[in-house]
Amino acid sequence: MEENATSTTTNPESSTPGTILGGGDLPSTESSGSFNPDTLPVELRNEPSLRNFKSWDDLAKSYVHATKKLGAPSEELVRVASNGDLGEVYDRLGRPKTAAEYKFDGEAPEEFKQFAHETGLSQDQASKFYDYLGNLGRESNDKAMKAYEQEQLQYQGQLNQEWGDDYKKNAELSRRAFLQFADSDTVKFMEETGMGNHPGMTKMFARIGQFLTEDNRLVGGQDGLVGGMSPATAESKIAERKSDPEFMKAYINGEHPDHANAVKEFQNLFNYLHPEN
Fold first, then answer.
1. CA-to-CA distance for 240 and 219, rounded, in angstroms?
2. pLDDT tens, position by position, for the chain (277 residues)?
3. 3-class DSSP state for residue 161?
4. Using CA atoms, how far apart are residues 197 and 190, in angstroms rounded to an integer?
5. Measured between alpha carbons, how far is 92 from 120 in angstroms, rounded to an integer?
6. Are 94 and 124 in contact (CB under 8 A)?
7. Which partner for 113 in 77, 99, 164, 178 could form a disulfide, CB atoms 3.0-4.6 Å apart?
8. How far is CA 223 from CA 132, 172, 198, 213, in A?
9. How many whole angstroms separate alpha carbon 267 and alpha carbon 277?
10. Which residues pair with 226 in a beta bridge?
C-alpha cells in the first residue's frame, strides 16, 4: 500500500529564506536601508569616519549637512597643498595665468606686474592696489611741493626781516658773488633745490660780494659785466653746452623732459653774451 507523501521538493525560484536548522542562507538581519562599510571598496572599508553610520540615510544626511556648512559642493572648494604651494589657490581666486596678462589704466611697470603675480593678486586686486599706489604718490608729491613753497616763503621772509631796507642791495651782492664763481651745473642745482634762497647760503655770498666790492674784484654792475659772468665766460659755456650731446638732445627735442631747462639755460647764456639785448 503506497503512502501518499506530501512533496517537499523546494522550488529553486522560491524566495523563501533558509532556516538556521535547515542549513540554507541565513536571513539578513539588516534592513534594505542599512549601511555596512565592509561592502565598500577595499580602500574605504577601514575609514574610521564611515564606521559611525548605521544606514545610507545617515550617510546622505551627513553629506548634505557638510555641504551646507561649507557653503559649496566639494568640487567647488579650493584645496591648499600640504607643501605650502598656493599657486592653485591664487589661480582659482582669479589670478591671471601670467604677469603679462594684467591690464591697468596707463602703463604699469613690468616689475609691478611680476610682483602682483608672485603675490597672487587677482586682476581686480592688482588694479585697486596700483591705483592706490598712484594716488599715494600724487598726494606725496603735492605735499612735498607745498612744503617746498612754504619753505621758500620762510627763507625770503627771514631775509626780509633781517636785512630790512638793505634786502635788494644784499640780494644783488649775493647773486653776483655766487655767479662769479659758480658753473652752470651749480646754478641749476641751486635753482632746482631752492638752496639759492637759503638764508645761510645767501648771507654768506652777500658777505663775499661785499669783500669783493671793497677790493674792486666783484664783476657786474659798474664795469658793464652782467650777473657775474663776462661775455667771454658766456661764450665758453655756450660752446661747452653745444658739444654736450645729451644737452643738445634736450634742447632740440621739444618733447624731452629737460627741454624747457635747456632752452632757459641757453637764453641766459646769450643774455650774458649780449647784455644790451
1. 22
2. 444 444 444 444 445 555 656 666 655 555 557 888 888 888 888 888 887 888 888 878 887 777 676 665 555 555 655 556 788 888 888 899 999 999 998 889 999 999 999 999 999 999 999 999 999 999 999 999 999 999 999 999 999 999 999 999 999 999 889 988 888 888 889 988 999 999 999 999 999 999 888 877 887 654 444 345 666 677 878 888 899 999 999 999 988 988 988 888 888 788 766 655 4
3. helix
4. 8
5. 10
6. yes
7. 99
8. 58, 15, 28, 12
9. 11
10. 229
Report yes or no: 102 and 108 within 8 Å, Cβ to Cβ.
yes
CA atoms within 13 A on the CB side of 35: 13
Cell numbers of 68, please?
Answer: 551646507
CA distance 202 to 179: 12
In Å, what is the CA distance from 188 to each residue of 37, 39, 210?
A: 87, 89, 24
Please tell me whether the overall predicted TM-score, pTM, comes out greater than 0.85 for this model.
no
| CB-CB contact of 129 with 102 (8 Å) | no
79: left (phi over 0), alpha (psi -120 to 50) or beta: beta
Q: Is 165 helix (H, G, I), strand (E, B) or coil?
A: helix
Tell which residue, 213, 144, 210, 220, has the closest CA to residue 180. 220
